[in-house]
Specification:
The structure is a homodimer. Chain A is an alpha/beta fold. In chain A, helix 1 crosses helix 2 and helix 1 crosses helix 4. The model of chain A has no long low-confidence stretch (mean pLDDT 91). Chain A has eleven helices and eleven strands. The longest helix of chain A is centred in the N-terminal third of the chain and has 31 residues. At the A-B interface, helix 1 and helix 4 of A face helix 1 and helix 4 of B. The structure holds a DNA duplex.
Chain lengths: 280, 280
DNA sequence: GTAAGTTACGAGCGACGTAAAAATG
DNA sequence: CATTTTTACGTCGCTCGTAACTTAC
């Protein structure tokens, strides 16, 4: 049987146009390449080139061989990346979530349970999460609704309730509850990468301007040094313990009082049994 | 990049079950195979086997690699056979015909014109001929009707008229013309491999029994030594020159007075221009 | 003359086989 | 003890690079 490196050489010759240039690209001497192609022809029992004294061109066989070579090399490269991706996936616990808060809780749990695994988490749209679960990009996804699929188990995991954190001097700070509509128009501090929350803010508070911060620390600094309202959640210590400078007022909209579900392919149930037990 | 022979070895191991047996099948020492697989794993940067002290089994990566390896090896083998088939086709002039007579004429013409080519001819049903022309199994096919396809040129080539050759003593031998229905029921001598003629005989002379001979010589011997009627055609010298023992009577059915057409893919027009000129 | 290709020849490295060791049933 | 696998080591062969030659523009 011929060898893959000979097919690579064939492609290189097609790309470079001449043996010499191809040899250079392949870090090979030109005579070595010449002989390698002679061996390939011998192996295939077919001439691939039209040889003139100082010129070599593909003949019809060569053109055909080139097409086959391309697919074979392509398959070989696919094999390598598929294997390496599979290997990585074996040692990586990938979680996708539609919001950041569940990850704050779940990541430490997993890293304690699966000590030899890398944990990788994404915040994505629900659609992206679901297709990621089907394609085994995620072992676990966290959504706001259980998945309606017999091959997937959805476990109720957490409830999240949002508050608005107002400075005491704020005109609305005496209210017992508020809706997003009530605070629409306010300029607010907001974290980035908050998944579906951002879409809700944009939709329900179209007149507000959001000062977006990437880092929690940066946001906290701004919170201290400004009178801007922010959001808070029941899922962080920082959100719950009333801040000296802020009064937390519950938000009433159903969209900001959600239940999160952990969704796992049934085929992964066994592998993740320890994890499943821990979230129930 | 890894090499194809390593993939072949991988398959051999999967088939044989143990390194030792696989090595034997591969005509390789067992340690050599062991190291070759170690190199493959190194190359892929992925372990493929679960190694115990004196036992080696595929792991999940290995199973996946095996699937990829199968398709790659398969592609490689396909490449070899496709190239060799293509090479052969380049040096072979393949003609398919629905009847033998046109081949008697056309074959010598082609062999004179294309001296470096092998001529290969088949007698097949019209359907098989047409699909063979499309798949480049035939460069030329001979049919009884022109093809209705803009990519194919159909050239009128020959007319063939059948006669029935009766012994002078035969009751019908004084007729000026006959139809197949008139001689239905007669036991007749017939050549084999006569293409669509055979179907016509069977259809139009359902009550006849046909003594079929593979060889022309054998048929001629029987013709001399028996009084059995046979068919004759305008396309052979032997058919035309009246035989002392036979009287040739024209058959009137339209089915046995046919025009043959040479059909050639337009894409082959250039390559076959010499041939096309010679048949017009 | 430069740039392309093939052939000739010597050298080095890489894959092979043999031998040895270790483990299992 | 037979079977299976890995490691160690020396050898052989294959492929490489250099050099020389030929041809074309």
């Amino acid at each position: 049987m011929f060898e893959l490196n000979q097919l690579e050489q064939l492609l290189a010759i097609a790309n470079a146009g001449t043996l010499s240039k191809a040899a250079e690209q392949l870090h090979l001497s030109q005579p070595a390449l010449s002989r390698s192609m002679q061996r390939l022809e011998e192996e295939l029992q077919v001439t691939l080139f039209e040889r003139q004294k100082n010129k070599i061109t593909f003949n019809a066989n060569g053109d055909l061989a080139l097409e086959h070579a391309k697919t074979i090399i392509n398959n070989a490269e696919t094999m390598i990346s598929a294997l390496q991706a599979f290997e990585r996936s074996q040692h990586t616990f990938s979680i996708g979530s539609c919001a950041p808060a569940p990850l704050w809780r779940i990541t430490p749990v997993i890293s304690r349970q699966y000590t030899d695994m890398t944990i990788q988490s994404d915040i994505k749209s629900q659609d992206a999460l679901i297709s990621g679960l089907y394609n085994d990009i995620y072992q676990v996804i966290i959504t706001t609704h259980p998945l309606n699929d017999p091959d997937v188990c959805s476990y109720k995991y957490l409830e999240e309730h949002l508050y608005v954190a107002l400075p005491p001097a704020h005109p609305l700070s005496t209210r017992k509850k508020l809706s997003l509509a009530d605070i629409n128009g306010q300029t607010m501090l907001l974290l980035s990468r908050i998944g579906f929350w951002y879409d809700i803010c944009k939709e329900k508070m179209p007149d507000s301007y959001f000062i977006v911060q990437d880092e929690v620390e940066a946001l906290n600094e701004l919170r201290k040094s400004s009178a801007l309202p922010t959001f808070a959640t029941n899922l962080t210590a920082q959100g719950r313990t009333a801040d000296a400078n802020r009064i937390l007022i519950p938000l009433t909209d159903s969209e900001v009082n959600v239940t999160f579900f952990c969704c796992i392919k049934k085929s992964n149930n066994h592998r993740l049994s320890k994890f499943i037990a821990s979230i129930q």
